[in-house]
Amino acid sequence: MTEKRTYERMRERDVGLGPWSKRAVSAVIEALFARANEVDDDVTPPPAERVTWVTGEVDDFLSRASTRSYAIVILSLVAVCFVAPRLSRRFTSLASLSPKERVHVLERFEKSGLAPALLAVKALLSVHYYEHPDAAREVGYDGACLLTPGAP
Amino acid sequence: MIERGREHSAERGQVLELDADVVVVGSGAGGAVIAATLAEAGQRVIVVEEGAHIPPEAYSKMRPTESMRHLWKDGGLTMAIGLGDTPVVNVMMGSVVGGSSLLTGGVCFRTPDKVLHEWSSVMGLSELTPAGMDACFADVERSVHVEEVPVSMRSRSTTLFGLGLRRAHGVELTSLRRNTKDCNGCGRCNFGCPHGAKMSVDITYLPRALAAGTHVLSDALVDRVLVKGDRAVGVSGRLKNGSHGKPRTPFVVRARRVVVAAGAYASPLLLMRSGVGRLSGQAGRNLTLHPGFRFMGRFDEPVLGWKGALQSAYTDAFADEGITCVGLFIPPGALAGTMPGIGPEHVSRAETIPNLAVFGGMIHDDPGGRVFDVLGRPVMTYRMSRKDRAVIPGLLRKMARIFFAAGAREVILPVLGLGPVTPDALDTLDLEHVPGQMLECSSQHPLGTCRMGTSAHHAVVDPDGQSFEVRDLYVADGSVLPTSLGVNPQLSIMAMATRIAWKLRERRLPS
Asked: Can you tell me the distance from the alpha carbon of B20 to that of B94, in angstroms, rounded to the nearest whole number?
């Protein structure tokens, strides 16, 4: 039995992200960690492999979270995906916007009174995203102590 | 012996029944001390812990988010709802054998003399003087190897804050003391020490308790304290051995004495569900949190703040204003998560993480919080007193100026949606009118919800930690501390538990 499976047994999986919330999480990751693309004045989302990995990690995290934590995250995600576009007069879901539009929508949302909902999602995604060794390297982090087995 | 409740197989309808002299609910800083002390005195002790048993060799290999999944309560997402102009406070606690002691930065302060004088002189807890508590502190310090962090282990982040403090206020940082042995300063104490260097209770007190015959039952959720007449006679609950780790098999531990040490969040709820604490109406009230704020300064030079002890120095120069500043560093993901900006703006800020110095400021708060049940679900609320709320703008300016004095180009304040602040912009910022819900605030120190006192009218437990309402029911964790401390409470909780354990050791067990 691998070490990972040893402690998987200690807090077992329950329901994680469903198909909708997986798409929503991926959409936020693509916007939140997008880089500037100066060639065509657009933004470039992180590599698809990394988005998939982070989404999987968030899924696993939530599958072991309490009902309360799960509810907080999902409600925050709903606010980010459906309320945030409306604050920018876009009457659609976040996932159906282009990554560049998503960035604008979330920037505006972050300055609104509903910012705590975004903070909850942003904090959760960031702690997972920067555990990916490539993402950590890209921001100049070289502290091996935090990047231990289980990372890709 | 450690028995994992999760792995317990039982037929439906079967009840696991155990018997002990003392049952201890919770295995953290309070419960582990009680268990070790009483077991070594020859008493038969059972410790019941809601969290899982995760040995050091397993948690040492976890990434931070894996640690959050398996060791932290609610994955680190427990919130105190801010009432009035109070921020929402993220309250972090452990839920594992060893409790929050696995997740602290190891900081060990004795209870400040000023606080002990208030307890002993103003509140009438006459034994809680510096002299009266000295032997308890000394015993804990020996047991968990409290040592001063050498200056050589300070991170560049801490050194820069110290430089700013000297330039702005003419004050030097003071070295912290921590419960460590052979720490190499890899900076991930909050997720379980990867080297076994932090002397948390799972590698100090609990092994002693186990060696003396204590039985630890993990994954076991206690629902209520069993009371017969006016005496506590055990606890009942459910093992988390159902599908997906949900509570299933009922268990009962019959005991001659019950010690509740489940922390300031869970202990009052357990008492209230058991019908205890109604006399004074104080169970669950008087919650203090030491609301904390993190500050980041961006420097031109590489700081690499993760290199060095996670927490190594502090200053109490502003203690008269109710502020204690303590050094810390946080993993890059957690830092980035609190940085303003989305997409390219966020990423460009995250790329400055190697140039960031980080320091924390916490408030020595008045009791303003409450823990209670709503439809069987625990809820925590927190209302800052006017005095504490008024401290925040000054704290924000003070910390920013210290970083600027050290040469920071800009400072990131814990205000949601506010971009980095330059020295010129700081003077024009209207920090006095930032709404509470826009402040980013966290706490690792919930205290006071079953406070100790001399009268059943305003306290839950007496000066020996015994419930005013039910005999042989004791509380021994952070919830009994009568007020907040203004400093990290780990050592105070363990010293108070030691004091209560010594009293119990001398007190004859009921027949």
From this structure: 26
